[in-house]
Amino acid sequence: MESQAPEASVPSQTAQVTGNAALFALGTLLSRILGLIRDMMMARYFPNDVRDAFINAFRLPNLFRRLFGEGSLSISFIPVFVDILSGRDSKSWAESDQRARDLVAGVFSLLMSITITLSLLATIFMPDILRVLLSGDAYMAVPGKFELTVRLGRIMFCFLILVSLYAFLMAILNSLQKFALTALAPCLFNVAMIAAAFFSPRFSAPEQVLAIGVLVGGFLQMLVLVPGVIRAGHFPRLRFAWESRDVWRVLKAFLPGMIGLSLMQLTIIVNMHFASRLPSGSQSYLYLADRILELPISLFVVSIGSALLPTLARFWSEGNRAALSSTLNHSLRLILFVAFPAALGMLFLARPIVDVLFLGREFKYADAVATAQVIQIYSLSVMMAAGVRILAQGFYAIQNTWFPALAGFVSLIAHVIFAVTLTQTFGLGGLAAASVCSATVNLLMLATAYSKWVGDLEPKRLVNSFAKFFVCGAVMVAVLMVHDRVLAIFGTRFFARASVLGATIFVGAGVYLAVARLLKVEELRDATAVLLAKARRRG
């Protein structure tokens, strides 16, 4: 198959990535809004110790979900699946179609076998696992807190099976450039959790109702993707297909990818352990701050990353390395254009955000102060997470999963060192800062290696673009700084606080975009053109 000329293919493919990312972002935005409502209810309805227990119990299946589901599965499966569908190595369409079916069946069978086995083992050994992770004296000293964590962990760990199946179906649809349902499906999970949180106070064990809501939500978000996969003709069947060389190609990329992502996710385990030594509520503060951080990351970074990987994988399959590098560089500048104001907003509006979302009932003033401080520290990592996510897609597209694994290993070691040092001195703030420092190490390693093995990062162009972003951000900060003065005029009741915060964010974002337009920021122009074109086509 002949590769297209970079000049002809790059603009259309860049527009396609931007458009798909926008579609994915809209669904993700709705899901994250529902997720914030869920977390708001959990923060207000449950005391610190119960929140800590629920969060720690949910961390384990969620950790493995990121490893087997949305993480290494996608980065190993999508490039191979896209390569097969391109027909590059097949003699006919029928052979390509059969290879694709064999791959889907083989990977599905392995995934279900692994997740079911893990769920059974984790349920049996849950007390021993959590005793290692939560060995801090502060956690164990609270009567019944550890036992509650074990009980909730046993209920929720089967979520791993459901969410891994959802992620596999999502990978199939994303490979086929179908992003709408995969972006909207998590909304059903959050709706189930909101319903569980709303009705839970009526039961004698409300935290167990919330845990059951996790399972119901996991089932619903998986189920909604099934019709689309059936229509596409790739619904998975239980067949190991050991003879398929394509399954082995996925496994070859899956294992180092899983190691790399597990090393990154082990930072969560490290934080669980260190936070168990800190005062009650520390687990909740980290979790809620992380949820605020995930809003811009999931909305923009994951959206662009999910839309980007299939396109990059296709360029690599066609041998079009120049187009791959150009598309990735554009996506990197685009995500930094969005991530920078998001980071500034979290830094300067952390306290108002926490007050509006969580303050009240069981969530007290001291809880709000501690959570806001963690958010301000975490805000520095938004840019790091954006860069890591986009650069990693370049490695995964060329089916190099070992170097991101190496970078993850080094950053994990750095995280442990930073956590030991900073937590002893600064407590919870030091533990949050350790995550920022380790993310910086990861980004520097990926950027250095990318320039050598994947393509030119065009640093001069990147710096020029960021200089414009900085000017836009500086003007936006001037708007954000008037928040407290405006709030003093309207009062501190909930409606006033929510309205002033919403208006500040809206005006700040508008000012940022207006200045970007005055400066003729390329990323704004390209994104606007794509979104308008999509709107005209739909209209």
- In this structure, how is the largest beta sheet organized? none
Low-confidence stretches: 1-9
Summing up helix and strand content along with how strands pair, one would put the structural category as: mainly alpha
User: What's the number of helices?
Assistant: 22
* Mean pLDDT, all residues: 85
Order of helices and strands: HHHHHHHHHHHHHHHHHHHHHH
**Through-space gap between termini:** 36 Å
Shape: globular
Tell me the number of strands: 0
Query: In which range does the helix fraction lie?
Result: over 70%
- Rg over CA atoms: 23 Å
Name some characteristics of this structure.
539 residues, mainly alpha, 84% helix, globular, disordered N terminus
